[in-house]
Amino acid sequence: MRTQVGIVGAGPAGLTLAQLLRAEGIESVVLEARSREHVEHRIRAGVLEQGTVDTLVGAGAGERLRREGIVHHGIRLQFGGERHRVPLSELTGGAAIVIYGQTEIVKDLIAIRLAAGEPLLFEVEDVAVHDLESDLPRITYLHDGRAHELECDLIAGCDGFHGACRAAIPAGVLTEFSREYPYGWLGILAHAAPAHDEVVYCHTDRGFALLSLRSPEVSRLYLQCRPDEDVAGWPDERIWEELEARAGIPGHSLNRGPIAEKSITGMRSYVAEPMRHGRLFLAGDSAHIVPPTGAKGLNLAISDVTLLAEAIAGRHRSGGTALLDAYSDACLRRVWRAEHFSWWMTSMLHRPPDADPFDLRLQQSQLRYVVQSEAMARSLAENYVGLAGAAALTVPGAPAPA
Fold first, then answer.
1. Does residue 296 register a pLDDT over 70?
2. Nearest partner of 386 among 5, 53, 36, 30, judged by Cα
3. Residues whose CB falls within 8 Å of the CB of residue 63, separated by 6 or more in sequence, listed in order
4. Domain limits at 29?
5. Do the bridges between strand 200-202 and strand 175-190 make them parallel or antiparallel, or are there none, so unpaired?
6. Residue 354, pLDDT above cutoff 50
7. Can you tell me the distance from the alpha carbon of 316 to that of 311, in angstroms, rounded to the nearest whole number?
């Protein structure tokens, strides 16, 4: 079997890349280790940058997003018992964020691809990539109990942090940067009306809390905890009581309801450089991880594949490889900006395990500066909605954009 681009992974990165390539008349095959049911129901990110929305709409995957996505023009920072609004759109020339779950994006993209009859295989086993430095790299895998080989012009590794693609790069090629945080997030999905019409980030001496949403009837809520805690130690009543203690302020109360899902996720930062080896191109979590505090993970993945699709299309049209050669450097500029922003948000809002009153006062001072200084608020807003020019593809040696 042969295709132009072999895509490993049917998460948002792989599926968006496939859709972007399809619009350019470029063939691809998407391989996914999990079942369709699994990838369509795993609860992940839900805050979309303006650029992510623009990419999905431009790729023809925005019909339901535009209908059901909830546009937010600001966020709230809560500390010292008070809430302060950061007016994102006002500070960024009109840019906004949209609340629309990653699971919904995946459902939309899968439906579009299957309706078009494009190759998308689930429950693929023993995926391995070969001959990455040759002109004809290959992907081998098992599907329905049979061995298969897929010859490609290029391979896109969109298979996440634990996937096969990055692991196949020879030792010594990659430089890896990482940081483990002493924080975890207990996340819940509750059938309860959101407590606020915008996302609320809460700093308290008890730890961080986040009030978010998925729809007018469903809340997505988070509590800082230890990364090694057992979720069984958090019965529903304890969760609601702790949310009230951290996020409740006079005049604002939480709406309780049945908790449909709960899980604990550790936090880390990770970057692999470069994001290319031969004919293999890494995108999304296979190349980088950010703490969820800045809402950057999904948006970075979509940014990666937007650039990759542009570069592949350039090669397809002219045979030139300049954009492909620039891909890794262009992505990494945005990745490191997002890493810093996510680290900054995380450090400012979470209570360190060994925090003393001095540490907490420093955090409160930083938060107060953000909400009182237009320059600081603008910096937060620009990073939160997405820096449009942070990862523009340019040909090495060409003049920089004006």
1. yes
2. 53
3. 108
4. 5-73+95-178+268-353
5. unpaired
6. yes
7. 9
What is d(CA 65, CA 180) in angstroms, rounded to the nearest whole number? 34
* Distance of alpha carbon 246 from alpha carbon 207, whole angstroms: 7
Sheet holding 47-48, edge to edge: 47-48, 97-99, 70-72
For residue 209, the cross-strand partners are 202, 223
The domain that holds 128 is classified in CATH as 3.50.50.60
CA distance 400 to 393: 10
Report the C-alpha gap between 260 and 258 in whole angstroms: 6
Residue 394 pLDDT > 50:
no
Q: State mean pLDDT over 280-309.
A: 97
Nearest to 226 by CA among 265, 270, 258: 265
Model pTM above 0.90: yes
Residue 345 domain-assigned (yes or no): yes
Tell me, yes or no, whether 278 lies in a domain.
yes
90-129 confidence digits (pLDDT tens): 999 999 999 999 999 999 999 999 999 999 999 999 999 9
For the chain, the residue count is: 402
Do the domain assignments include residue 235? Answer: no
Residue 206 placed within a domain:
no
Regarding predicted confidence, which is higher, 43 or 28? 28
CA distances to 126, 298, 314 from 145, rounded to whole Å, are 11, 32, 37
Number of domains in the chain: 1
Instruction: Compute the average pLDDT of residues 155-175.
Output: 97
The percentage of residues in the chain with a pLDDT greater than 90, rounded to a whole number, is 91
Closest CA to 178 of 365, 341, 339: 339
- As annotated, the active-site residues are 72, 201, 292, 296, 384
